[in-house]
Design a protein that fits this description.
The protein is mainly beta and 202 residues long. It contains 3 helices and 13 strands. The radius of gyration is 17 Å and the shape is globular.
């Protein structure tokens, strides 16, 4: 479990196809405090540490995970948001995040407004009902508040405001039109939708 508060930006150093895709990620973590088998969210994807060194760790990414995440997410040289798993007693600065990607969005625009970035993301109709203005969403592992949602001509967009601090300590300052991003909906929205579905069966 995570909170969507990024604690480091890693860089993918190498990829090795060995059944699953072995991804080596350079990071700033004290790897002496990271156990093999630990979970680290990599741009919103919960992955297991299978190898490590002084300033890097490796994860295995299955074909299923690759099919559910943003295209180009795991490429050499790519910077990715990192967050270690939540510990009992840690501050919950964002919202409850599972590290399971619900879908992929596409950046429509990212425009500087004052010192911040106004970002518009297009989502599928399947995800649209789970996104609400002033609700929470995770974009590439970052906990954010939705500014607004619009449904027009069978297309749904939502807007975000990325403040300078968030742009500096995450990869969201790099967002450009056409870029695919990992999305995780608020877990409360998921449970509410299931409750409504179950109620309709009674």
């Amino acid at each position: 479990m995570f909170t969507g508060i990024v604690s480091d930006i890693g860089t993918i150093e190498s990829l090795d196809q060995r059944g699953d895709l072995r991804v080596k990620i350079k990071c700033g973590y004290d790897m002496g405090s990271v156990d093999l088998g630990a979970s680290i969210a990599c741009s919103g994807v919960c992955l297991t540490v299978v190898d490590k060194g002084d300033d890097w760790f490796a994860v295995d990414v299955s074909g299923e995970t690759l099919s559910c995440t943003a295209e180009g997410q795991f490429t050499a040289g790519r910077r990715i948001n990192l967050e270690r798993a939540l510990k009992v007693g840690d501050e919950l600065g964002g919202h409850i995040v599972t590290g399971h990607v619900d879908g992929v969005g596409e950046v429509v625009s990212s425009i500087t407004t004052g010192g911040s970035w106004a970002v518009v993301i297009r989502v599928s109709r399947e995800l649209a009902p789970f996104i609400a203005a002033k609700g929470s969403i995770t974009v590439d592992g970052v906990s954010l508040t939705v500014n607004g949602v619009s449904d027009e001509d069978a297309v749904t967009h939502f807007t975000l405001n990325i403040i300078p601090h968030t742009a500096q300590v995450t990869t969201l300052g790099e967002l450009q039109s056409g870029r695919a991003v990992n999305l995780e909906i608020d877990i409360l929205a998921r449970y509410l939708a299931r409750m409504e579905q179950a109620r309709s069966l009674v």
